[in-house]
């Protein structure tokens, strides 16, 4: 029987994976998540997802399937990470205001000594946000654990996003359709 491990501390990823109807446990290991300038922005999420999976390589249990993921926000060919403080969050959100950016989630599935690494990209279009809207969001939602300083499922997504092109769940943190398709191909017995 396959044991599924989600190697992510993200409560959003935990909720999303649970919604696929699979039993899993959460285990995390700290890794250095910095990516150098040599890493192309669109490849960073896959690189980090694989790095997170490699941290489990030495102590993976028999029949254990590891799922890792990393989400990056790319604006103006640069990665916007998690904001360091309120001023940094404000700077990020004002940069996204009135513009289109990309959200890339890289996923790695490690099973039976094989890595399956893939990514999903979603285009997100923000309306022009006022400084008051940005400050309200930061004060009430504290988006300091979110790439790009926002969560699409929160207030700012409801009032600020004009449209998206691509997978909504990808922006939340896990491209569910692709994850389901890959898991079903790798281990169809998961869904009996």
Automatic annotation (TrEMBL):
Its EC number is 3.6.1.9. It comes from the Bacteria. One of its GO terms (molecular function) is dTTP diphosphatase activity. Keywords: Cytoplasm, Hydrolase, Nucleotide metabolism. Nucleoside triphosphate pyrophosphatase that hydrolyzes dTTP and UTP. May have a dual role in cell division arrest and in preventing the incorporation of modified nucleotides into cellular nucleic acids. Nucleoside triphosphate pyrophosphatase that hydrolyzes 7-methyl-GTP (m(7)GTP). May have a dual role in cell division arrest and in preventing the incorporation of modified nucleotides into cellular nucleic acids. GO terms for cellular component: cytoplasm. Its cofactor is a divalent metal cation. Belongs to the Maf family. YhdE subfamily. Transmembrane segments: none annotated. It is found in: Cytoplasm. The active site is at 70 (proton acceptor). Pfam families: Maf (PF02545). This is dTTP/UTP pyrophosphatase. It catalyses: UTP + H2O = UMP + diphosphate + H(+); dTTP + H2O = dTMP + diphosphate + H(+); N(7)-methyl-GTP + H2O = N(7)-methyl-GMP + diphosphate + H(+).
